[in-house]
Amino acid sequence: MTHVKRKKQTDRTCARQSSHTHLFKRTSLGRENTSVKKARDSISCSYGRHINGFAAILEEEHAQQLAKHPEVLSIFLDEGRKVQTTRSWDFLGLEKDNVIPQNSAWNKGRFGEDVIIGVIDSGVWPESKSFSDEGMGPVPLRWRGICQNDTHYGFQCNRKLIGMRYYNQGQIEHARAQNSSFYPTPEHSTARDLDGHGTHAASTAVGNFVANVSVFGNGYGTAKGGSPRARLASYKSCWNVNGQPLDCRDSDILSAFDDAIHDGVDVLSVSLGEPSHKNTEYFKDAIAIGSFHAMMHGILVVAAAGNEGPKPDTVVNLAPWLLTVGASTMDREFTSYVTLGDEQIFKGKSIAAKGVATQTLYSLITGDNARATNAALYDRQVNPVNCQYYRFLFGAIDPKKINGKILLCMNHTHGIDKSQLAAQAGAAGLILVNPKQLENESLPLPYHLPTSLVEFDDAQSIIAYNNSIKNPVASVSDVKTEFNTKPSPQMAFFSSRGPSTINPNIIKPDITAPGVEIIAAYSEAVAPSKSPSDDRRIPFNACFGTSMSTPHISGIAGLLKTLHPDWSPAAIKSAIMTTATTTDHTGKNPITDYDGLKATPFEYGAGHVNPNSAMDPGLVYDLSFYDYLSYICSRGYNQSIINNFTTPEIHSCPKSFSILDFNYPTIAIPDLNESVTITRRVKNVGTHNSSYEANVEGVDGVSVVVEPNNLSFTEYGEERTFKVTFTPERNVEPKPKAEKYIFGKLIWSDSDGLHHVSSSIALQLL
After folding, report:
1. What top-level branch of life does the organism fall under (predicted)?
2. Does the global pTM surpass 0.70?
3. Closest C-alpha to 471, from 406, 521, 417
4. Which residue in the list 122, 500, 547, 759 is annotated as catalytic?
5. CA distance 292 to 283
């Protein structure tokens, strides 16, 4: 991928721009033999609306020549991005027992009325009831998008789903590079979602109200998105090719950004990200580049933090103009109970269809004893309930042995396949055992028969019982939907964590939101398990991931955009972050990590989103386009790169700019060994004639002085600057390197006690 400086073009995305063609030709080795046609054919995609660049197949030598050209900002490989998936709105306080309180953000934000939220993902399932335009008025006149139909999977847009586009050139070129005989089918040329991921994310952000929704009869209620009256624009950039997992090429993602900016979206939801080990500087990061141009046009981009937790240093989407979202639990869970013949009861997890109970208890049989005579036995010497030997072998279970019994089986990563095998063999139920190394890291899945996924320690009691008598018996209950579980929220084990590997002066993720067992619309072209052998189809599914938490924030951002249409993306982001909570749902205890330990800003950023408070934050930390350019300068980018990022007449790097003074809503100092002073600026978006007082919590071992300690405002939009000085206390006992970060928060509270503007603090003592 290469980005060049040129005048703005107005022709459509992926048109083969002549300026890009001539640049390609001029830099070709042996260019006297390179025709315009050959250069044009080598360019697969040209961005011409707001993002200046093109995608092409290059030899290594040609790429090196292009990189030297003075008009070229950067060249990077067309990498693949991975996707990151309704009680949640009740849990967030927007409703209570199906009643919307007067102070709900839904009321204040008019349910996101006429805001346009774009989703860059795998497309949507247009026929889903979540995308019904019932109750919607005319499409906003400012909308400039299209409904890009196809000849094979026909569909119609409406007043809710106002736009659909697809981008496949990067994916097709990648597939051909892997297999020269690859030929695209109609499945590779449709904006329709054939995977489910995009439909789920989109409906979580903007889904209309749909009553009587459940997943196999579980989680019954009304599904809806964060901005249920917003409009949806879908930009399909992610594809399943040759049976592989969903993949999103950078060139297709950039095309989607370019069109979304042109079409007139207000918020972009991007549940995508590269593996954390590929984190790179912003000018080589497609999502960072696309979102920067979106920010230039007043569009807030909300992106997933990634699913590589619980390891540290794994968070992705690190650009400060992105609102990066982690995932946490809510106070609902789907459970299934195992009852043994000796009346022991164990709680497990499951999302499965209800069974047909014909008796109270069933014979219990281990996977080892259920195997067919000719089945391979891989792990018998390790654990007799492992079941690995028939992971994908449909003839590996002896139906005569298992029919009408409960199968006991160790779960590694293929529990759904095992449940399908057990169901086909006539089992009455299934008990899956979570390995010890994955303790507290289990999640319910859409099993094929009554199933309970139990933790390792509980499984030891079940195994001991099984081995203690000649005829062990057990039962597996149907799934129960349980509420008010504690603690909640709790950080999800898979949610990627900080600190940022690109710039530890910026705390990432920025925020956390519900991302576990989220029920939302789903594509009916694929099974809930996504297994090719699974013929089940459901209109709604329960999914987990930062892909699910991200559209929660996108929907809330839509409410804020409706209420405050003149706010900048940074102001909306600040409102969401500074009103977040760092205590659980009781308001008494700190948010904990998946293992029960106290969570930190490297897990949750500013905290757990609080949408009702975000509507009226009191103060915001605003940032302009020029502030972000100064930040880029502080990264060491030279003037030439800055010029190519924008244009020379727009900005030149300041002679002095400290990253510590970047007006971010959180504070991080990764190398505090002496007194350091930072500067911040807040804008009054609350009442006239208001005053605020500063208070600092936590940060033990560091002296903190805020000057001034009181801020007064007489007008809306008025700004005040303050400084914070951090000084390590030398009498503090040194800590191991891994424990040198200390955490706290700075809170500005108004005299009426109505606003508490909070900023997370992370300090690394050296």
Report:
1. Eukaryota
2. yes
3. 406
4. 547
5. 10
